Amino acid sequence: MRYPEFLREGGIIGFVAPSFGCNIEPYRTGFDHAQERFRTLGHPVALGPNCYEGRGIGISNTPRACGRELTEGYLSPDSDVLISCGGGELMCEILDHVDFEKIRRGKPKWYMGYSDNTNMTFLLTTLCDTAAIYGPCAPAFGMEPWHSAVSDAYRLLRGQKLSMEGYPLWEKESKKDEEHPLEPYCVTEPRVIRVFGGEEPVRFSGRLVGGCMDCMVNLLGTCYDGVKDFADRYKEDGIIWFMESCDLNVLAIRRAVWQMKHAGWFEHVKGFLIGRPLCHGQEIMGLDQYGAVTELLGSFQVPILMDVDLGHLPPMMPLISGSLATVTYGGQKISVEMALR
Length: 341
Prior knowledge:
Blueprint: E1 13-16, H1 27-40, E2 45-47, H2 63-75, E3 81-84, H3 100-105, E4 110-113, H4 118-128, E5 132-134, H5 148-158, E6 163-165, E7 169-171, E8 187-190, E9 194-196, E10 202-212, H6 213-219, H7 227-233, E11 239-244, H8 250-262, E12 269-275, E13 283-284, E14 287-288, H9 291-297, E15 304-308, E16 319-321, E17 324-330, E18 333-339
Helix pairs in contact: 8-9
């Protein structure tokens, strides 16, 4: 596994928009303020050409333009790390225009984003054997004040914190809107982690990989599906899957899990970290978010931790995809210790 250099004092933070750009509120103001915050911390910024674009369908610009920006931004010596401007809908369409071979041969660089950015974080790990960060996108760093999860993401980029713990409360309804673009997370709901497939205390180790289930299942079976080779390469370590979902309802989550399972993606699995889905609390035809996952993954006889701080209902623990991690859980306390080896 290739690990990039962490963001140094005075290091340059680059921004790219391979999915949505920050062309509308509240994202534009949030992004502008994030740049101010980073400059205050001593970091110059470098903007890709699509950061404020909104001409694309489900992404900031044309697939070709977005793919070129991502490749050039990743390989450019003008930035030390990259943060995505946002998630979106059709980042998958840029992949034919991303030069993964050049990226694989080039100097590794930290790339951070989540949701639609799974199309990069997941593929950096599984195709390029390069670590990436599944964490907040650029406008989140514009909130005032920073939530501790946002601070953790910055400290992770700096290499100052490689062990993440869960957060006591989560946001059910956001107060951020066009009139309040810098609003912090409105955390009101107590986090309650549920454990399946094991008794507390739970402890397991393996190589972290995962992201947004909506995006991952879309890649399954394509020329960008390198999961089985990746899992075989690290079978001695075992694999820890972290997954969350955005647009999928509970039935679609179950179909996605079924498809990934039958494609052999979960070979050598040591445990699962399942984030709160955006459809949290939904039930369809007697199926809830827990049955959607556990009834299919239970056959692996490994721990399944659900409603973990991951994904679209913040806050989220920033995780290094590709790192060798140890997960410890007991009494509603979770920690993910990540080692770069």
